[in-house]
Design goal:
Blueprint (H helix, E strand, L loop, with lengths): L4 H10 L9 E2 L12 E5 L4 E8 L2 E5 L9 H6 L10 E9 L4 H8 L9 H6 L3 E10 H6 L1 E2 L3 H9 L6 E2 L2 E4 L2 H13 L4 E6 L4 E2 L7 E5 L2 E6 L2 E4 L8 E8 L2 E7 L5 H16 L14 E6 L1 E2 L5 E2 L2 E5 L10
Parallel strand pairs: 1-12, 6-8, 16-20
Antiparallel strand pairs: 2-9, 2-10, 3-4, 3-5, 5-6, 7-11, 10-12, 13-17, 14-15, 15-16, 17-20, 18-19
Length: 320
């Protein structure tokens, strides 16, 4: 029996670990890869959502390619143009009535417990804002030959009752930084920049789509280290900290070149084999590091923490 296009895409997504294109911080992208003019777009603090449309049917799926909790489809129905065949609308689920953590839990594809009355009431505030569009063939192929600026025009042509991401054309790094600062000052998360002539590539995280977002900065004491895998085998890849009573691991962020990672690793190895052991002056454990995170969650957890630099000017008593 021939599989219908919608089922074929869902099956494909369930078997790939790189279903959609990703976003990278602009500071982590080589400057020679950044080109202007660029389309700048408000970054919405929400949950990634792709909606598959075919002959009046719709399926809302997560970034991992899994179908959201069933009732999400019913809530989104009024905002979706259903006259499309083999179309994938990409956007963000947002809800100003609850935190991102709560929203994520309510729409989680693995959710089994039905929404209670209060949760249903919260979900009345859900919206979806679209910022890209693909075809089923694009998803199956893992790429689209259509440049972003043409895909953006297709998003703009969606019916009036669909919400589209707000943005403006940026002509320089100064304009990029100014737009990001304006959005952050207004309480937003930041902006996303999209190369006008870039095609779409599933799993790609680099120059095609970049971001600049608000940051939270803290100084914390390193409690443990962990070495990496693959090209990071034998090198320290992340450090452990405690924030507001909760232990967490943070990857080494921008600025940690291979040379610096190796030097940090050698200091740690020297300390742990030396007679002084953990008290060795070069041991990262027990030292204070500057960390950058996207923000603090409603549960007091740092979102997307990155280890920046060693704070030689800080003492344990100074930490957050």
């Amino acid at each position: 029996m021939t599989m219908c296009p919608l089922q074929e895409v869902l099956l494909h997504l369930s078997h790939t670990d790189k279903p959609f294109q990703l976003v990278k911080h602009i500071d982590d992208v080589p400057t020679d890869k950044i080109k202007y003019p660029m389309w700048g777009e408000k970054k919405y603090d929400g949950v990634f959502c792709a909606v598959l449309l075919h002959r009046g049917n719709q399926v809302a799926i997560s970034r991992t390619g899994k179908q959201f909790y069933d009732e999400v489809n019913d809530l989104l129905y009024p905002y979706i143009p259903h006259d499309r065949e083999e179309t994938v609308l990409i956007g963000e689920l947002i809800n100003t009535q609850c935190s991102l953590e709560v929203l994520s839990g309510l729409v989680n594809p693995n959710r089994v417990q039905a929404w209670d009355i209060d949760q249903r009431d919260l979900m009345k505030g859900i919206d979806i804002i679209f910022h890209d569009i693909l075809t089923f063939a694009d998803v199956l192929r893992g790429s689209s030959p259509v440049p972003f600026i043409e895909r953006r025009l297709k998003v703009q042509a969606l019916p009036y009752n669909t919400y589209k991401a707000q943005g403006r054309m940026l002509h320089s790094q100064a304009e990029f930084d100014l737009y990001a600062a304006e959005e952050i000052a207004a309480g937003g998360e930041g902006i996303v920049g999209k190369q006008l002539d870039a095609n779409y590539e599933a799993g790609h995280k680099g120059y095609r789509v970049v971001k600049k977002v608000r940051d939270l900065h803290v100084d914390l004491k390193c409690l443990a280290v962990e070495t990496g895998k693959g090209k990071r085998t034998g090198q320290i890849a992340r450090l452990q900290f405690k924030y507001k009573g909760k232990l967490f691991w943070a990857d080494l962020g921008e600025g940690w070149t291979d040379e610096k990672r190796i030097a940090l690793t050698e200091c740690w190895q020297l300390a742990t084999t030396n007679a002084l052991k953990m008290d060795h002056p070069h041991n990262p454990i027990g030292k204070i590091f500057h960390l950058k995170a996207l923000q603090e969650s409603s549960k007091g957890v740092l979102r997307l923490p990155k280890v920046m630099e060693l704070r030689i000017d800080k003492f344990v008593e100074d930490v957050t």
